[in-house]
Specification:
This protein starts with a helix and ends in an 8-residue tail after the last helix. Helix content is 51%, strand content 14%. The chain is of the alpha/beta class. The protein folds into two domains: 244 residues, Rossmann fold; 111 residues, Alpha Horseshoe (Serine Threonine Protein Phosphatase 5, Tetratricopeptide repeat), CATH 1.25.40.
Length: 404
């Protein structure tokens, strides 16, 4: 092999690696600087769009994260993984970087008591309500102005951030639809927030929210606060409040976020997947059942939940079961519901190929290519390859077009 040919092959190989790396790379968070008149300072905000948003113009629920640093990508990747497995919707992640976390995340002015009886002064503590003012009156409006959002918000916090999440739930229950608190520091100020929570839940008759809280292998006051909150919610659970708690004895205070975030997101979006018949593994109720399921999800979460992925999955399961007419009907229904999605046409083409209709299949893949070109769909290369295969099969003669 000549050096020139070897060089060309090497360049092609490196280009291929770069393309694969680009496909696998997670969405890079965008850095925003939001000036806060409430806090009288600039705040750095990291916004991570979901992987599913690439090439699409859709609206998404938003997850707000305290201590917003590297954990923006951690929870963002967890969301992408679960959304890709149709266990939850894609979310926008908004990570709030710290300036003074002791100030922003503590609800009252207090110090830290050590085991030897000494008290460490925290001079700036007690600014949680002002920080909430910033989130409610400045940050949320700014995010909703800049990005296409759905009216469903989740607040996530760890340690003091977990304390802040529970404080937010009981003091401004209308601000977020769900709160996630991993290893919440409920010991703060002699369990002041815990006592407020006990009073709040004793009086609250109805609260359509979700609360997930957890604890790692932690004892002392951390454990006391966790167990007392569990007891409180067992005795006084408002109607409509979904509560789940978990204990991770194999995790430390610093390592628990990953497993807690995964479990919490599963809890918030429990029931997201369509129920399946254990005998056939097909969705219960067929196409009508899938559409009804997504109507119920839309009602439950307060925004229109797309049934596209669920219907598409049903179509391919029917195709695998050799129920070609039913599969094609499902794919056609997706085209009717989501005509601006390129993938629905490509899927319909698969059904039409299986039905022995290569010409109609080719027309639909061409439509998929056209729509993908207009919308910047990242799957455009796949649709083009599909079209090339169908064109080549049609030129090869009868009996070849349906082969893959």
């Amino acid at each position: 092999m000549s050096p020139r040919i070897l060089c060309c092959l090497l360049i092609a190989f490196l280009a291929s690696l770069a393309s694969v790396a680009q496909d696998l790379a997670p969405p890079a968070p965008q850095r925003l600087v939001v000036h806060s008149n409430v806090l009288n300072e600039d705040r750095v905000i990291w916004v991570r769009m979901p992987a599913a948003s690439q090439g699409k113009k859709e609206s998404y629920p938003v997850l707000y994260l305290t201590d917003g640093g590297t954990n923006v990508n951690e929870i963002g990747s967890t969301i992408d993984f679960l959304a890709d497995n149709n266990s939850m919707p894609p979310l926008i992640v908004v990570g709030i970087a710290n300036t003074d976390r002791n100030r922003d995340l503590t609800p009252s002015h207090a110090g830290v008591k050590h085991s030897d009886g000494t008290v460490e002064s925290i001079p700036t503590s007690g600014g949680a309500d002002k920080f909430l003012d910033f989130i409610q009156t400045e940050l949320v409006p700014e995010i909703e102005k800049r990005y296409a959002t759905q009216p469903y918000r989740i607040l996530v916090g760890h340690s003091l951030g977990g304390l802040f999440a529970i404080h937010t739930l009981i003091n401004r229950p209308n601000l977020f639809n769900a709160c996630i608190a991993s290893s919440p520091s409920l010991w703060w100020d002699d369990f002041r927030t815990l006592h407020q929570a006990q009073e709040f839940f004793a009086k609250q008759k109805e609260l359509k929210k979700t609360l997930f809280f957890s604890l790692a292998n932690e004892g002392g006051d951390m454990n006391e606060g966790f167990e007392q909150l569990q007891k409180t919610l067992s005795a006084n659970l408002p109607k409509g409040l979904i509560v789940e708690s978990a204990r991770y004895r194999d995790e430390t205070h610093g390592s628990t976020e990953l497993v807690a975030h995964y479990a919490a997101l599963r809890a918030v979006f429990a029931g997201w997947q369509v129920s399946r018949d254990p005998k056939t593994d097909l969705p219960v109720g067929g196409l009508a059942g899938v559409e009804q399921h997504y109507r119920e999800l839309s009602e439950r979460f307060g925004f229109k939940v797309s049934a596209e992925q669920g219907i598409n999955s049903l179509g391919y399961r029917l195709l695998g079961a050799k129920k070609i007419d039913e599969a094609t009907a499902a794919f056609q229904r997706n085209v009717d519901l989501y005509p601006r999605s390129a993938n629905v046409y490509d899927s319909l083409a698969d059904g039409l190929e299986a039905a022995g209709k290569p010409d109609l299949a080719m027309q639909n893949v061409q439509t998929a290519v056209d729509v993908a070109t207009q919308t910047g769909d990242p799957l455009l290369p796949d649709f083009k390859k599909h079209l090339e295969r169908l064109v080549a099969a049609s030129k090869a003669g009868p009996g070849k077009a349906g082969q893959k």
